[in-house]
Amino acid sequence: SEKKHVAVVGLGPMGATMAETFLKAGHPVTVWNRTASKADALVAQGATLAPSAAGAAAAADVTVISQTDYKAMYASFGDPGDALRGRVLVNLSSGSPTELREAATWAERHGATLLTGGIMVPPPGIGQPGAYVHYSGPESALDEHRATLAVLAEPVHQGADHGLAMAFYQAELYVFWSTLTSYMHSVAMLAGYGAKPGSLRRFTAKMLTDLAGDGPMGFVGHLTREIETGEYEYAENTLRMQAVGMDHIVETNEDAGVDTTVPKALRDLFWRPVHEIGEETGLGSVYEAIRKPQG
Ligand code: NDP
Q1: Which candidate, 92, 115, 143, 237, has a CA 20 to 30 Å from the CA of 53?
Q2: Which of the 8 DSSP states describes residue 30?
Q3: CATH number of the domain at 6-160, please?
Q4: Whose CA is nearest to atom 3 of ligand 1?
Q5: What's 168-291's CATH class?
Q6: Which tens digits make up the pLDDT trace of 29-45?
């Protein structure tokens, strides 16, 4: 077959879906998982179960790893001997940038090349339009296997530093989790005033759309330009005005009887540039406060 032989190591919800997606795309697939029974359904669909992770990698043109963390990779491959020599390993597990860099050194020590990746979709999104992976490590290795890896999700190369894949992954997850937590916060606060949980939905949906757009509320774009130039606009909206507004948000959350940890942290972050820079600054200078952690 002209389709590359793929090994998938780790058959949790993600890895199992990846193996199935490769099979459906016509790739020969060899799998390995610590708990071997998780391979049963895939073997029934045509996958080959390898006796070891190193054996799976040695059988394939390229190996995709999807496990809980990077510790699982070391536990799975043990001392692989020469099995990984000349191979490309693609690890799509979650970890810290430091762990990813260490893993690249480990792979090199065994004669292998590591590509690190952060996959930005849950299992049902794998192989679907709109799915993408932030990759880092040598671009030549990604280019060599780009067509195969594109079966899972669009590959986006972020740089040679192996840590970048997780820096991007976590940057995205932080926006995801903090945005959704803010939404839950506001719904909980409104519930303290007797409002129904669904009453904020359409307003939040509009705001999220507007923030990403090009109109006057297109703050993702406005802030990006301000951060690039270092000039934080304040003509109609000083940061002081907004910090006072954050004080009111903290009070309103207190009145509603909900947790105020996050609102208070945001309020403090807003006031810092006002105290340090003065009145003549805008929301964007919160970025400068974030870049200067306090004691
Ligand atoms: P898990 O994070 O629960 O990973 C389960 C897999 O890891 C199983 O194959 C499990 O083996 C294996 N594993 C864990 N510890 C070890 C170990 N010490 N030795 C050998 N194997 C081990 O499930 P997911 O499939 O959901 O996630 C895989 C990765 O993908 C994670 O890093 C996750 O953060 C990331 N991810 C997940 C998304 C999701 O929506 N689920 C979305 C994007 C990324 P066993 O079966 O034997 O327990």
Answers
A1: 143
A2: E
A3: 3.40.50.720
A4: 68
A5: mainly alpha
A6: 999 999 999 999 999 99
